[in-house]
Amino acid sequence: MGIYGALSSAVTGLRAQAHALENISGNIANSQTTGYKRIETDFLDLIPDAPISRQVPGAVLAQSRGTNDVQGDIKTVSNETFIALNSNGFFVVEPKIGQSDGNAVFAGTNFYTRRGDFEIDKDGLLVNGAGYYLKGLPIDTLTGNISGSVPEVIKLSNNFLPAQATTRVNYQANLPQLPKNTGYNATIYNSELMEANDYVTGSTTASKTGGALTAGADADTVLTAGESLTVTVNGTAVKFDFYDSDLGPYTGTNVGIDIENTTPTTVADALAAMEAGLRSAGGPAASTATVGIVGGNLQITLGSDYHASFSVAGDAGTLAALGMTAGASSAPTRPNVDTIPADLDAEFKANSVAGGAITVYAENGAPANVQLRWAKVDSKAAGGADTWNLYYMSNSAATGASPMWTRVDQDYTFRGDGSLLPPGVPTATITGLTVNGVNLGDVELKHDTNGVSQFADVNGTVNVSTLNQNGYGAGEFVSVAINDSGRVVATYSNGERIDMAQVVTAEFNAINKLKRLDGGVFASTSESGEAILDLSGSGVIGGALEASNTDISDEFTKLIVTQQAYAAGTRIVSAADDMLQEALNMIR
């Protein structure tokens, strides 16, 4: 190879170090450029063909190597349209090629960048600091679903947002097993319940009717000493033993009814004694029970308790004498209270618990405040099943007998474990919802599975876990932001946030084989492969920017090494020149 070969190799070394210096210079110059990817320098030795014993190092060639797979630091910023990527992907962008009739014109070519400093321009487009426009997929504002598959330049609209009528209210809550409303008194049986008979007519208590009896007749002409009658209320049995005091005092443990005839005891006296015994020994449900003659016939009722039932059993002779059959009483009836008049508003509130309130919207955007209250109308402890009704205030200005509250046409009945009786109530419908004259039509009350439960609550109040709706009033465009899911979200003066577009990202199999262009963008090449689009927005970070991945200290270190290598190369040139000079001096 000789002196000339050494000189040639030194020159290639100088050229390679100069190329490395150029890359270092560019990296340092772009150390503050958003999303910039530094360029590394690789050196490739060029070995001339020679026998093994005559091989020499040869020349060198400098090549550029991308660092697109090395992420820069991500820093938070206050601008809500700035975005960064925590992945190996790129934003899909496109440059504007001109204007036509005042509108931007694009060629439809995709470029790729990590520079996410996007801002809204005068046309409502998102453009970054290098002049490239962000692309994505439009979103159906009604369904929130992506409505396309080919990325297009995202265009925002500052049009007025039209109102959307409420068609669904999502409502989930736990109802207390024992509601402690203002009317509740621990010493008063059933005081936690709303009694239908206080609001409408038609309620009846459990009753059982016997045969015709004469109140003034001697008791011993109807009843027989030594026989008995048992009335069982809510599992509590009260046994009446009939005896004759002329034959000795009553020594039993049940309720003794004296039918002696020395001092005549009438049928009315015997029935009065039975009523007193039933009230005292029959438990809370029998505290207002009646035993008497109604319309000439024997009748046993539970008085004012509209929830429990009872049964009757006894000796055949006694049952026959009273004209009564063994078995269960009639079931109590409690009609639904469909509306609450204004003059009973205070009593209703005392018998119910608040269930939350929500503003809903009519088709024209008119708001209506829906106030909800829950009333427990039956309970397992009272002999029935734990049952609730839901009411909403339909007319807050009602007076007198005009309806103020309206019942949702759905019973909520619970099992002992706190869940609704199968199949549950995943959804209910408020038919013709009208609040203070605002007509909203039929509205779905969506609870989902197990959305309404009844578990014990020490406070005795309703715990609302979900209460929202899908309507809103008209609103004016206020601002736009890009969230961490890559959704472009517009905010309006009515508080609504509407998804307008989905940012699309692209990944490549050979990420470092992309071609660099001005403005921090890249173009795909045959070596990089085609872009693999991601429509999910994964890796997008809103309100953030990716800094340059250039490390100044590292670049300065490489600068020193490059400078010394270049200086060493010049020494080789000088040494080769001296050697050639010496060779020339040989002929003098």
Could you explain the architecture of this structure?
By secondary structure, the chain is of the alpha+beta class. The protein contains five helices and 38 strands. Strands 5, 6, 7, 10, 11, 30, 31, 32, 33, 34, 35 and 36 form a twelve-stranded antiparallel sheet that branches. Strand 31 (487-492) and strand 32 form a beta hairpin. The mean pLDDT is 92.
Number of helices: 5
- Biggest pleated-sheet summary: 12 strands, antiparallel
* Number of DSSP E strands: 38
User: What radius of gyration results from the CA coordinates?
Assistant: 45 Å
Structural class label: alpha+beta
Distance between the ends = 25 Å
Strand percentage lies at: 35-45%
* Unreliable stretches covering 5 or more consecutive residues: none
Mean pLDDT: 92
Q: Which outline best applies?
A: elongated
Helical proportion? Answer: 10-25%
Strand and helix map with partners:
Elements lengths: L1 H28 L9 E8 L12 E8 L7 E3 L6 E3 L4 E11 L2 E4 L4 E3 L5 E2 L5 E2 L4 E7 L13 E2 L14 E9 L30 E6 L15 E6 L2 E8 L11 E4 L8 H15 L8 E5 L2 E5 L8 E5 L1 H7 L4 E2 L10 E3 L3 H6 L2 E9 L5 E12 L7 E8 L9 E12 L12 E9 L2 E9 L5 E4 L7 E7 L7 E6 L4 E6 L4 E7 L1 E3 L7 E3 L3 E3 L8 E3 L5 E3 L1 E3 L5 H34 L3
Parallel strand pairs: 12-27, 12-28, 15-16
Antiparallel strand pairs: 1-2, 3-38, 4-37, 5-6, 5-7, 5-10, 5-33, 7-35, 8-9, 10-11, 10-32, 12-29, 13-18, 14-15, 14-19, 17-18, 19-20, 21-25, 22-23, 23-24, 24-25, 26-27, 30-31, 31-32, 33-36, 34-35
Helix pairs in contact: 1-5
Quick structural summary:
With 588 residues, this protein is of the alpha+beta class. 15% of the residues lie in helices and 36% in strands. The longest helix is centred in the C-terminal third of the chain and has 34 residues, at 552-585.
